[in-house]
């Protein structure tokens, strides 16, 4: 049942993003920013944590989950370090995911020999 919940919630998030792409003239980069900011706002309102507990990976993998993690990292760092936590918290919370994406992207480029396009 956990897989079904993750699939449904993650699918709903992706469908909403696809609707934004299809029905508006927003560029994909702006839609990504909207998703990240939505995760931050829902986290600040206390809505995203229950969703995350319910759907687990279905809510943590999309960009809204990244926004929630940024918000969570900043709030924890502000509680611990004060004002300087505004600048440190997001970097600390997002460092592992960003590092993993860079490492796995590099390894994939070694395996599949990408070509530059014009």
Short note summarizing the structure:
The protein is mainly α.
How would you explain this protein's 3D organization?
The chain has one domain (2-112). 83% of the residues lie in helices and 0% in strands. The chain has helices spanning 2-23, 28-44, 48-55, 57-60, 63-81, 85-112. It is mainly α. It is globular. It is built from 6 helices and no strands.
What is the element layout, followed by pairings?
Layout: H1 2-23, H2 28-44, H3 48-55, H4 57-60, H5 63-81, H6 85-112
Mean pLDDT: 87
User: SSE order in H/E notation?
Assistant: HHHHHH
Helix content: over 70%
Helix and strand composition category: mainly alpha
- Rg, rounded, reads 17 Å
Provide the β-strand percentage band. under 5%
Largest sheet: none
Spatial gap, N to C terminus = 46 Å
Tell me the domain tally: 1
SS field, number of helical segments: 6
List low-pLDDT spans.
Answer: none
Could you list some keywords that capture this structure?
118 residues; mainly alpha; 6 helices
